[in-house]
Amino acid sequence: MSFTNFYSLYPRKQGRRAAEKSWQRMTMQEQQDALEALSNHIEYWKLKQTEKDYIPHPATWLNQGRWEDELDMEVKKIKKPELPWYSSEELTKSKAQEVGCPAYAGEGWQQWRARISQKIKQLEEQL
Description:
The chain is an all-alpha fold. The protein is 57% helix and 0% strand. It has 6 helices and no strands. The longest helix has 20 residues, at 28-47. The radius of gyration is 28 Å and the shape is rod-shaped.
């Protein structure tokens, strides 16, 4: 195990001397464990799109025994808030097609949206 190997792999290159001192204080087993865990942590940081400023300095990672951290490797899907059908032209067209309410020639967006809204109410009353 060499500190040079560890440091060459670690994605944040800050505080090399402090990190090397931390490395020297570790047992051989801890060094091996840290080196083995590093690839998982690098994968985790990439998966979570962690900015380099939020990756701990290497000395911090070593001093805190962060190689023993439990990592949640699940990709969390960001759910976009659902916009109301009348919030854009595209959504309005889609809703109009869904409820069977085509636009009339010369009709403005507000008028069309009002007719779509009436059609939706009629359909809901039928249920």
